[in-house]
Amino acid sequence: MSNGHGIETPASKIATALATLGLAIRLNAEVNQGRIDVSIFHRAVNIYTGGDGLRLPAYPEATQADLDGGIYNIVQIALSSSALTVDETLLQVFGPIAYIKVSSLLGIRVMIHQVRNAFAHNPWRPRWVVYKKYRKAYEIELDNGTAFTFDATSLDGDGLNPEQFGGLERWVEVLQHCERLVASNPNIA
């Protein structure tokens, strides 16, 4: 995993995206279980930036809806960031989608790219923008034996819902597969 320090590799970029998404999901679970509650807003927070710093004042009028909406947005941003990171990493390692000949890798590339595109113009309300040439069903098989179809035939214009690509469980499996795939690619130093 990278964190702004040390050597960054394609695999560490994906590991970072996975770790960030995992943390967002964990925080969401903590909110859902009531272990993080609206009291998180009741205290001021100082953030030291190397300059004067930033002070976030207490927000005592915060509601459960504020917390629920905020944690939902954090998960959305982590999902968006994972799509962006993995799409860019796969482009770096394997080149443009148009050059991909292995059908399973093509399906993965298209799926990840389309999720990225859904977030591109409005990360808070992502919508599928699937160009005609990508409106197909893609058979995908992961190295763990999981096989599924990413069906992009009728997504264009719909709001993004993780169930359309197998849910967050499948998304994490795909990203783990991609991390192993780029780590084992002999063309990467």
* Number of structural domains: 1
Number of helices: 4
Shape descriptor reads globular
Number of strands: 4
End-to-end Cα distance, whole Å, is: 16 Å
Give the structural class.
Answer: mainly alpha
Poorly predicted runs of 5 or more residues: none
Helix-strand topology string: HEEHHEEH
Helix content: 40-55%
Strand order of the largest sheet: 1-2
Question: Largest beta sheet, briefly?
Answer: 2 strands, antiparallel
Give the oligomeric state of the chains in this entry, treating copies of one chain as homo and distinct chains as hetero: single chain
pLDDT averaged residue by residue: 94
Q: In percent, how much strand structure appears in the residues?
A: 5-15%
Radius of gyration: 19 Å
Overview of this protein structure:
By secondary structure, the protein is mainly alpha-helical. The chain starts with 9 loop residues before the first helix and ends in a 6-residue tail after the last helix. The chain has one domain. It has helices at 10-32, 64-94, 103-120, 167-183, and strands spanning 45-47, 54-56, 137-141, 147-151. The chain is globular and about 55 Å long. The strands form 2 sheets. Strands 1-2 form a two-stranded antiparallel sheet. A two-stranded antiparallel sheet has the order 3-4.
